[in-house]
Design a protein that fits this description.
The chain is an alpha+beta fold. 16% of the residues lie in helices and 47% in strands.
């Protein structure tokens, strides 16, 4: 006669074995679909540029929006804007380079990519004054399986504004959503359909 503890152990071992095989096989990995245009909306934080050198004070949260036109899998033109409740609004434009969407391993259900940006434009010093400056940053995107066409975006970097009182670079950080790129249909399904319609060899 099996004891209750033995039955529980046996069932648990069987469940772990089945789960382990399923994890090793991994879910179907659909090919990412890159759209021509992308939109983004993020919560933003940045170091204040109206502080003296050596002093680092952050302001936020603010709102940041972005529009990108893809020129290929790895290059895009970008227009961006951010605003804060104290009236600091910046407008920038430039280029984005990326690794392209990829799966980190055979077990990843959704793809991601690394991105880097170089933007130039009007960067707010305070609620009244703006100066021409440079923004350099990098981060990543991870697509959601549902709803399709959305993903998580994060980004950190620095802003260089020669006319600022601080006379040094200041950091910024953003986290939010992107809209446009999406996961495609599972590739295994397409392969199965293709195989079913292909002639069999004798």
């Amino acid at each position: 006669m099996f004891r209750r503890s033995s039955i529980v152990t046996l069932l648990a071992s069987g469940f772990m074995l089945i789960a382990g095989r399923a994890a090793a096989q991994g879910p179907p990995q659909p090919d990412p679909v890159l759209t021509r245009f992308e939109l983004g909306a993020s919560v933003a934080f940045k170091e204040r540029l109206d502080q003296p050198a050596g002093q680092r004070d952050w302001t936020g949260p603010g709102a940041a929006v972005e529009a990108a036109g893809n020129l290929g899998n790895h290059l895009a033109l970008v227009g961006a804007a951010d605003t804060f409740f104290d009236g600091r609004t910046s407008l920038l434009a430039g280029a984005r380079i990326s690794s392209g969407f990829f799966f980190g391993s055979g077990r990843d259900p959704v793809p991601g990519r690394f991105v880097g940006k170089i933007l130039v434009g009007s960067i707010a010093i305070d609620g009244i004054t703006s100066r021409v400056g440079l923004q350099i940053g990098g981060g990543g995107d991870v697509l959601f399986s549902q709803p399709r066409g959305t993903g998580l975006h994060w980004e950190v970097g620095f802003r260089f504004v020669p006319g600022a009182d601080s006379h040094q670079n200041k950091g910024y950080a953003q986290v939010g959503l992107i809209f446009g790129p999406r996961t495609g249909r599972p590739t295994l399904h397409r392969r199965a359909e293709t195989a079913s319609h292909s002639p069999r060899q004798a």
